[in-house]
Amino acid sequence: MKELITIIALLVFGHTIYGQTYNNFETDSITDSEPFKPSKTQFMIRGYGHTGLNSINNDGETESSYVGSAFAPIFLFKHSDRLMFEAELEFVLESNELEVGLEYADVMYVLNKNMTVRAGKFLLPFGTFMERFHPAWINRLPTRPLGFGHDGIAPSSGIGVELRGAFELGGPKLNYSVYSTNGPRLKDGSDEPEEAGMLMFQNFEDNNNSKAFGGRIGVLPFADSSTEIGFSTYSTSKVGTRDSEYEDVGAFLYAIDFAFVKQIPALKGFIDIKGQYNNSDVDDATYSEVHEDGDEEEYTFDNKSNSFYTQLSYRPTMASSDFLKKLELVGRYSNLNAPEGAEWEEQSDQYAFGLNYWLTWRSVIKVAYQTTDSVGGHDGGGTANGFFVHWAIGF
Amino acid sequence: MMEGVQPTAFSFIGQLDSNNLEKLKIMTTIYKIFIAGLVLLFVGVMITSCTSTKDTYANATEVEDEFKIEKSGAQMWGEACNRCHLAPSPADYNDTDWTTISLHMRVRANLTEKEITKIETFLKSAN
Lengths: 395, 127
Hints:
heterodimer; A: mainly beta; Porin; 16-stranded antiparallel barrel; two-stranded antiparallel ribbon; B: mainly alpha; 4 helices; 68% helix; Porin_dom_sf (chain A)
């Protein structure tokens, strides 16, 4: 009996073992599968954050504060080799409040080797700063040049569609982008009289049927891709709200950008030069100003603004010391001219100098000093000096 | 057939008896085919001449590629990926991630197909 049980048991177990062997080596898809095969669909969370200490001296008054704590997660969904969705959320602590923004959210599809279509909210290729250099881990200084960002004169993002692409010219390269977005809105001064005549580029729903059209052409004349020169325009025939007296006010903006990045053995490191000039021309219109005594006065001005920045940085990547290799020196000049006669009239010049320490390719500690001289502007002008220590990290 | 034949454009061919008419029919067909052929040839030549610019251009780059030492993906990575930010090292991401990043960068940085394919291959081979 015992033997019978043993035999039966052996048969049963033997069978199982046999079954397992069989499964393992011939039909089991897991062990039988090829080495790791990536799926075409892919999802990545990327993004960046930064934080730091700002100490700003404005005509003798010093304000110092820990700032930033900005967190910007980026979501990338790749559906196929051609189709992808990208979105960036931005969380910033500002003026004691948490501000949440949708920096961009767009879908892109590679149509052919020279053309990609994008739709949604995307960063505008108006010049290069906003589209390419503004993230804290890319920008070599803790601040933005004059003319960009809040109350800037250059558009940064828009909702619409865009075609972009690049051509190989056997050494030199050419890239282009053309787009149409909901045009900007004109601040007519009814809400904020001190900003009458400014363009507001955030226009989630178009306030008139007139769209903005823009584009950029970039040329990389040398085979080593070191140099790029770009020309961008952005125009719209109507910026005012439909049926308002400002409806037919149009705007034309253009930008010229320049970049040179190259490792130069004679200088033992990377030289990086960037620059951009922005020009904005909004048709003249009449705005009204209410004086303290209640009198209303109409005024107009030549609504032209421009801004410029140029930045030079140097990284001694070929230095013998590992510490020196990670250092970077940067200097930047920028200026802004807002229209004379406007409530927001301003002429500012700014110099910024910085010393950066690169922990990794996407993480940097920036120490910078910046001095701004202005006439007019939000704070009434004067000299503002700032000292910044920031830590930016991309992930 | 056709009694009292009127002098026609084809009267030089001779009297249009049924035989001749048959010939004429064949000739017009041949003529039509000939014209159609000419048109096709013309269109064809037009198209080829237009594309041929592209062909010579492509040939030129091929020739150039042959004689110039073709840039390696590694060199292109060193040049193109440092233009905006510091270039990441191939080891920073795995192949799957590089595929996504390459597509992202191709569009964001408006890179040419040639650049991105070469760089992507390099990044995946060196991580």
